[in-house]
Amino acid sequence: MSPPADAPAPPQRTATARRIAGLALPALVVLAAEPLYVLVDTAVVGHLGAVPLAAVAIGGTVMSVAAWFGTLMAYGTTGRAARRFGAGDRTAAIAEGVQASWMALAAGVLLALLGLAGAGPLTSVLAGDPETAEAAAGWLRIAALGAPGLLLAAAGNGWMRGVQDTRRPLWIVLGANVLSAILCPVLVYPAGLGLTGSAIANVTAQSLGGALFLAALVRETRALRPVPSIIVSQLVLGRDLLIRGAAFQACFLSATAVAARFGVAAVGAHQIVLQLWFFAALALDAVAIAAQSLVGASLGAGDDREARDVARRVTLAGGVSALAFAALAAAGAAVVPGWFSDDPAVHEQAAVIWPWFVALLPFAGVVYALDGVFIGAGDVAFLRTVTVLSALLGFLPAIWLAYAFDLGLGGVWAGLGLFTLGRFVSLMWRWRSPYWVVTGVTR
């Protein structure tokens, strides 16, 4: 089937600043929409009190597992689709999206069922007190229903990025999240649903986004049947991304669990700053999305020089953008926590970890950019190894030592610092080596 009239033009492989910005800026809106909505949700729920805020922190951490699966699908699909698009085979690139969507639907339904059945036990393990655990379980039982839509949207983002179409994802994701951002305060306060209203707004955004991406895929092709051989190939690539993602999940789940042991105010402050960190991370990932698409297309076309040029440019862009984020965060240290909570104890705990947040952002910007380069190049085995080692030797020992010696949130965020700096050093070394530059349709 021929592509629709508004399909993107064939790939341009000149890594100019304008070309990178043309892919990165729409991706920035897409990446920022979900964490921005989470920040709105956190601010709305935070004014209900410390326990509801802590409940969203716990439930949201569990739901981040679904977001992690979505990231795996989006990133794996982008790299594979981009190589085929760069080689001139747009039909094969779209086929990657079809098979990724089948995986997304199956995984999303499974995660929804697991969330419904396991909400109580999971939140009891993570929460520091029974009241918080009960509130978090109620929120999670509803929010889990959004998992299928969330994963379908991730698969849709993946194949569209691969064919260098960042315009349609922008409108789909932005529309769904704006609707949900309007619904959230209405359902929580005037409708009187409290935490339940927050969960319903989450499900609405995720389900609507997934449905719109699925409709876009049907418009592109009628070849919608599952193809086991392609799914298996995607799963093989996804294995290393899965292990890498598991290291992230172990770190952040452990960090939330340890923060909860320091009290309700501590876990509330941790939730606020961690969501700001995630917001900055995903916003900075905009240049990484451009890198995935352009590096994959360049290597698929056999142009290793262009791939290296993209890597150089996005690394610089990532570092500069992160410095700007850090400056804004430093300027807002005395103001921003008040947007999310009126509790002085929460503000006091946030002040403990704010310097860590500001200091680590510039290093994180370079790390996220290089993650995009290596995912686009298919060098995910190296990313897996570096992430696992940084977690095992840095993040996890530090946060559990913080718990054992009662070091508070400062110890938790020192672990995040070790995790970030370990990856920074390793990825900079890899960037300067020739090992990640492998041309051709497959790696």
TrEMBL record:
An example Gene Ontology molecular-function term: antiporter activity
Keyword line: Cell membrane, Membrane, Transmembrane, Transmembrane helix, Transport
InterPro entries hit by this protein: DinF-like (IPR044644), MATE_fam (IPR002528), MdtK-like (IPR048279)
One matching Pfam family: MatE
Taxonomic lineage of the native organism: Bacteria, Bacillati, Actinomycetota, Actinomycetes, Micromonosporales
One GO cellular component, as annotated: plasma membrane
Protein name stated in the entry: Putative MATE family efflux protein
UniProt topology in membrane: Multi-pass membrane protein
Transmembrane domains' residue ranges: 20-40, 52-75, 100-119, 139-159, 171-193, 199-220, 241-264, 276-302, 314-340, 352-370, 382-405, 411-429
Species per Swiss-Prot/TrEMBL record: Actinoplanes campanulatus
Location(s), subcellular: Cell membrane
Family of this protein: Belongs to the multi antimicrobial extrusion (MATE) (TC 2.A.66.1) family.
